[in-house]
Specification:
The complex is a heterodimer of chains A (416) and B (251). Chain A is built from 14 helices and 11 strands. By secondary structure, chain A is of the alpha/beta class. Chain A folds into 2 domains: 287 residues, Aldolase class I (TIM Barrel), CATH 3.20.20; 110 residues, no CATH class. In chain A, helix 7 links the parallel strand 7 and strand 8. Chain B is elongated and about 65 Å long. In chain B, helix 1 crosses helix 2. Chain B has 3 domains: 122 residues, no CATH class; 70 residues, no CATH class; 49 residues, no CATH class. The mean pLDDT of chain B is 91. Helix content of chain B is 43%, strand content 13%. Classes of the chains: A alpha/beta (416), B alpha/beta (251). Chains A and B meet through helix 1, strand 1, strand 2, helix 2 and helix 12 of A and helix 5, strand 4, helix 6, helix 7 and helix 8 of B.
Chain lengths: 416, 251
């Protein structure tokens, strides 16, 4: 059994992976089994930094053969090392799961000896959990780049989700900071999985990664612009049908490499990237609409407001007739408000007073809409801008909500 | 001010609606007798009548989508003091406008307030699917205690039943002394009156709850601390039943 000390080591080394979502799978329990997966995901606790704890996020081993400069586990870093056995991980998962501490397991590992040995260890743990412990809860497995594709495909039959981390947003940065990794070694398995995933869906055979694949990149360790990152994100969604792209602000863990920043990257940047990602996935925006290739997202207001300010010709939008996909482009009107508007206007034309009664926050929206043809806002651009700024500084206080958006029920209240 | 007093049952509640329509004496409040009437209240005691109740239910089903009736039954699990009156006003509004289905008209206050009840209960159910904490008893069943704002135990049972299948468990709402029980086969939710429930924990229990605390304390990224956000997602009032937070709970 893992003791406190080793659990601590394996947890501390795993915590920088930000995704902890347990959503997207509806795996059922079996008659002799334990566990199932809830499609919308469930948060079991929240850390001091406000992130949802859904899965037991742990490394199999932090004893790494590689020397990625941005990572705590790099070979050259002097930290205590340990490796768990498959049984130890399984026991811990079952005991945590039945107490309802967790929704499942997020298993990852440093490179133990070489990629194949590592992947064998991970797959064996997951196999044991599923086949011997009869565990039907959620399993997110980290894929090890350059491991045997057969191992990865087998893992896909057992796990709910797999992620290969992009790590850094360009090949150049990878070369500089993670010399043992290449863009190809990361993208190739992602593309294999995407192919298999599509095929499994179309032929409806077995269960292949019901919750699909995701990835994560570190933001701010290397110099890429937000425009570059959002374009990369968009192409990852298009090419590999990823479920999510996660961004993780770089937290300094290495003060000896002149190529790495020594101060932490602002959380605002990560937050803005998540908002832009949200616009890509749900609001029907394209990367090109959001910002230019070499641009960075504005710090002062969210990317939807940024877009609105640049596109006066799109506004004002008439509340009583505009289709939902137009309504959600209005600053301050999100899905929840758009839904309320569309449901309520069936009963008759909505006045501004009705909107207030429906508790739709009008502060930002007022300058972008008409109600029965009447405009209530101001035409003065600098006032409009100012209003967006002020209202955003309130919203920013709730920052980092987006890091685990699909796990946070409260987010439905947060509209952008 | 007319105040209806009824026996707290579902039939009783729907009988109140019948009374209001047939006497045209619409109350300004309604209670299950648990609280005292205040000065100025004119209490009207409504006697539960199954036939009248059924007629009202049929009326609601005809006036609005099926979910409206289900929603009303659900909303009665609210822990809010004014829940009966909110449900009552909503039902009356739906019936009065029976020619068009107004059950989703969010620009109407009755609908909004009613929806707040539903939202709060659903949110709490969702939260407790995560925040319930079982401990292993020495009698080989899992035991969880909690004190939710709303009466939601019955709604949590199916979720844990399908999950834990081969592990009998008990979920104990200590605020209402309601026990949700699963014996490995069937589920029952019972009111334990003023009986006390005592459970002895297995030897392992402390070891695992300590391991969990170790995990919790180490998974946080120090540089990103944001207590306010954490509390918003995991309200302090729930902490006393969470092993990882118990030591910080204020009561
Ligand atoms: S392979 Fe690189 S990123 Fe992964 S644990 Fe080892 S040093 Fe860290």
């Amino acid at each position: 059994m893992l003791d406190y000390k080793r659990l601590k080591i394996l947890t501390e080394s795993a915590k920088y992976d930000v995704s902890c979502s347990s959503s997207g799978s509806a795996r059922k329990n079996t008659s002799v089994g334990i566990g199932n997966a809830a499609f919308s995901g469930i948060c079991h606790s929240f850390t001091q930094d406000g992130r949802c704890i859904s899965l037991l996020k742990i490394l199999m081993s932090n004893d790494c053969a590689y020397d990625c400069q941005y990572c705590v586990n790099r070979r050259s870093n002097d930290i205590p090392r340990t490796t768990a056995t498959p049984e130890e991980i399984c026991d811990l998962v079952i005991n945590f799961y039945k107490r309802n501490y967790i929704e499942g397991l997020f298993l990852s590992s440093a490179i133990c000896n070489n990629p194949d040995d590592t992947m064998v260890m991970l797959v064996e743990t997951v196999r044991k959990l599923r086949q011997e412990y009869r565990f039907n809860g959620y399993i997110h497995l980290k894929g090890i780049p350059s491991a045997d594709p057969k191992l990865i495909m087998f893992a896909g039959e057992l796990a709910d989700r797999i992620s290969f981390n992009i790590e850094l947003p360009s090949e150049k940065s990878l070369k500089l900071l993670a010399p043992q990794k290449t863009k190809k070694s990361i993208l190739l398995p992602m593309s294999n999985i995407a192919g298999e995933y599509k095929q499994a869906r179309s032929m409806r055979y077995g269960k292949f990664l019901p919750a699909g694949q995701t990835t994560q990149m570190i933001v701010g360790a290397s110099p890429e612009s937000d425009g570059h990152i959002i374009r990369l994100t968009q192409s990852l969604y298009d090419k590999f049908s990823l479920k999510r792209v996660y961004f993780s602000s770089y937290v300094p863990t290495n003060y000896n490499n002149p190529n790495l920043p020594v101060t932490k990257v602002s959380l605002t940047r990560e937050h803005r990237l998540y908002q832009a990602d949200w616009l890509l996935r749900f609001y029907g925006f394209s990367a090109e609409e959001i910002l230019g290739e070499n641009e960075n997202l504005a710090e002062d207001f969210d990317p939807k407001c940024g877009w609105a300010l640049k596109h006066p010709e799109f506004f004002p939008v008439e509340i009583n007739t505009a289709p939902a996909e137009k309504l959600v482009r209005v600053p301050g009107i999100g899905f929840k408000s758009a839904y309320k508007i569309v449901s309520a206007r069936k009963y008759g034309n909505l006045s501004l007073e009705d909107l207030n009664k429906m508790r739709i926050v009008m502060k930002r929206a007022i300058n972008f809409i008409t109600c029965n043809g009447k405009f209530y806002g101001t035409e003065n651009q600098s006032t409009v801008r100012h209003t967006l700024l002020i209202t955003d500084s309130c919203a920013l206080k709730q920052m980092s909500m987006f890091t685990d958006i699909d796990n946070a029920p409260a987010i439905y209240g947060g509209e952008i | 001010m007319t105040k209806y007093v009824f026996d707290g049952t579902h039939d009783g509640f729907f009988t109140c609606i019948f009374e209001a329509f047939s006497t045209k004496n619409f109350p300004s409040d309604i209670s299950d007798g648990a609280d005292q009437c205040e000065i100025g209240d004119i209490p009207v005691y409504v006697k539960t009548d199954k036939t009248k109740a059924e007629r009202v239910v049929a009326g609601i089903k005809k006036a609005a989508t099926k979910t409206a009736y289900r929603d009303i039954k659900f909303a009665m699990h609210s822990g809010k003091e004014n829940k009966y009156f909110t449900c009552f006003s909503y039902a009356v509004y739906v019936i009065k406008n029976k020619t068009i289905d107004v059950s989703r008209n969010f620009s109407e206050n009755y609908v909004l307030r009613f929806n707040d009840l539903i939202y709060a209960i659903s949110q709490e159910i969702h939260r407790f699917k995560g925040f319930i904490r079982f401990a292993e008893s020495d009698g080989n069943f899992l035991y969880a205690h909690y004190s939710p704002d709303n009466d939601i135990t019955a709604y949590l049972m199916p979720h844990f039943k399908s999950r834990l299948k081969n592990y009998p468990f008990v979920i104990h709402d200590t605020a209402r002394n309601i026990l949700g029980m699963y014996n490995g086969k069937d589920v029952a939710t019972v009111y334990a009156g003023n009986k006390t429930v005592s459970v002895f924990l297995s030897e392992n229990e402390n070891y695992f709850s300590e391991l969990w605390k170790t995990y919790y304390n180490n998974v946080c990224i120090e540089e990103r601390k944001n207590e306010r956000l954490m509390k918003q997602f995991m309200p302090v009032r729930y902490w006393k039943n969470l092993p990882e937070k118990k030591d910080e709970a204020p009561f």
